[in-house]
């Protein structure tokens, strides 16, 4: 007789303008609790490339995976999450596109009165956020010095990545969890509500900024562990 056990592998996928180092707090808490955690370093040049990078990490795992995406990373896990090894999806203030949608289509018609992310005009095919406005928009609940460091260490986000469209959204077949950040000034909370409802996600709300994975790692780790415990494997 086999017994059920929670999923023990977690794969973390970052979004645009940042790299995987922001996951350190979440990583520390999950590994402390016995999870095997891997962090994807997305090139963020194209959705296709980021999906390929994510699937490489998924394929390295020795069993089922909870796949976690922040912001643009939500689009990545939506496409990569159809992998047979993925047992659950966790979205953190993230895009959750449907078939044929992209980040571009999801941000094309913001809700009335929603804050507009301070994205500068494209330069040589890449996007940056305005350094002076980055802290308030992306990292409003982080210490000023930490937010300034994030602003000054931005990763160029390839314009092509925003245009990459979803072919088969994993949330249609896999259980999902979604953390809505009520103080988000990058992805409006109303849009997060709409995407999580459409995906049928189990939702939690946190009073946090878009950088919730950095500012509130305990809340994020707790949600990931909820997902891991809910999708037991035999």
Write up this protein.
The chain has a single domain, classed as 3-Layer(aba) Sandwich (Rossmann fold), CATH 3.40.50.1820. The protein is 36% helix and 16% strand. It contains 10 helices and 8 strands. The strands form 2 sheets. It has a 6-stranded parallel beta sheet with strand order 2-1-3-4-7-8, sandwiched between helices. The mean pLDDT is 95.
Name the average pLDDT: 95
Say which CATH homologous superfamily is assigned. Answer: Alpha/Beta hydrolase fold, catalytic domain
Largest sheet: 6 strands, parallel
Instruction: Give the topology string: H per helix, E per strand.
Output: EHEHEHEHEHHEHEHEHH
Q: If you consult CATH, what is the topology? A: Rossmann fold
Q: How far is it from the N-terminal to the C-terminal residue, by CA?
A: 10 Å
- Rg, Cα atoms, Å: 16 Å
How much helix is in the residues? 25-40%
Total count of domains: 1
* Strand residue content: 15-25%
Largest sheet, spatial ordering of strands: 2-1-3-4-7-8
CATH class: Alpha Beta
Q: What is the tally of helical segments?
A: 10
Q: Label the CATH architecture.
A: 3-Layer(aba) Sandwich
Number of strands: 8
Shape, per Cα inertia axes? globular
The computed structural class is alpha/beta
Low-confidence stretches: none
Organism: Trebonia kvetii
Keywords: Hydrolase
Domain AB hydrolase-1: 10-222
Pfam families: Abhydrolase_6
